[in-house]
Each structure stands twice: as C-alpha cells, then as structure tokens.
Amino acid sequence: MLGAIAGDFIGSRFEANPIKSKEFTLLSVENRITDDSVLTVAVADSLMHGLPYDRTLRAYYRRYPLAGYGGMFQIWANSESMGPYRSFGNGSAMRVSPVGWFGADRDQILAEAEKSAAVTHNHPEGIKGAQAVALAVFLARQSFSRKKIKEEIQERFGYDLSGSLDRIRPGYRFDVTCQGSVPQAFLAFLEAADYENAVRNAVSLGGDADTQACIAGGLAEAFFGPVPDPIQKAVFDSLDGFLKNKITQFYSRFNTGG
In terms of CATH, what superfamily is 2-254? Predict the structure, then answer.
C-alpha cells in the first residue's frame, strides 16, 4: 500500500505538467499526496475494520475534501444516497492495492476488489481494472514471476501487455480510463529494475502521472519489497497523524513488512 501512496506522491507534480522522460528529481517540495492516496487508505481502513466501502470513502472525502477528486466522485461523495455511477475511470484501480494484501486466494481477492470498485465504478471496465491490479499485487507477494503475472493478467482480463514503454511513450496521451491507463501502468512495473524505476517509468509516459505511478508503485512494492527508506521518510513527513496511524495499523495488521 505504501508503494502506491509513494507513487502518487512522486507523480503528483507531473499530472498537470507531463514529461516524457525518466530523468527527473524524484523528491521535491512540490510533491504531495492526492485523492489516490487518501482513497487507498480508505480502502485499507475498510478492510481492517470490516466497514462498508461506500461509507468509508465518503468519510475520507469529508476529512480531505481538497485532495483533487474527480467531478463525479465529488457529486457521489457529497450525497448520502447516490449509488454507483457506472464509471470506467481509473479511480477504482488507483485505490485497490490494499485488497491485494488481503485474502487467501484468487477468488477472494477478485471478489473483494469488485466490492471496492462497484460502490462507484460499477462499469465492467472499472471493475476489471480494480481486479487486475489487486490480483497482480496478490500474485507478486506470492512470489510469482513477472512473466507469470503478465500471462495471468493478459489471459484473465484481456489486457494487451505485449508492447513496450519506448514504443508507447511518444504517442501516449493523458487518459483516465481503466482501459487506457491500467495496462500502461502494468508495463511500467513489468519493465522496472526496482521500485524507483517502476515509478519513473510510469511518470515518463506523460499521462495521468500520479495515478499510473500509484498503480505501478503498488505493484512494485509487492514484487520488489519495501519502498526505499528515503522515499518512505519523505512520504511520511508529508502525512498527517491520522493517515500515518492508519498506514501503520495496516502494515501491522497484515504483516506486510512495510
């Protein structure tokens, strides 16, 4: 989970100012967490305490109303009765990484990922994006090879992961749909040498940088291990006590080694 939050933190300053390079200052005073991190922690909180996802997501929105949420999510979060709005945006995939640390098998992970998505993103593509990321996190922490992870995600979800970042990068543009951003975030992870490289890969696409780095970072943490200490420190220094406490609880509860 911290891998996703750190990816969001690093990618945040490039969302409105995209770049097409992996060469950039990793940690800057301009970095901040966004809705990606806030809602990732909300999902973790729901898992830890058995709370309904819709209630927890709304509560976190009210606590952090200026984190940069999408327009439809804000309308939903400000309503106590509005149901899911059939979104296929990547919001379902950005917040799902904690689900990959929860559960004993694929079926449980897939079912929980669907639950976490469907309160807002009940379009098949929105659910698929969340399930793909959660399952890949689960497989990575089970020590599956990236080749095996790639094969399973392609076969189960139909994502085309055969390309390369170098071929995609020149023509890639900002895209907040699951189908137009999640496969590319997977490639950022699949081509990475380590955690930092995965996040740099995601940012270098020049797209929805914070969200794609969030997704790639969550995958990379599960595969490579804990986020490097300097990045962890920078992220934790940026968080308030409430979020720090929830993150610490999650790592303790699920013994994830963060």
Answer: ADP-ribosylation/Crystallin J1 (1.10.4080.10)
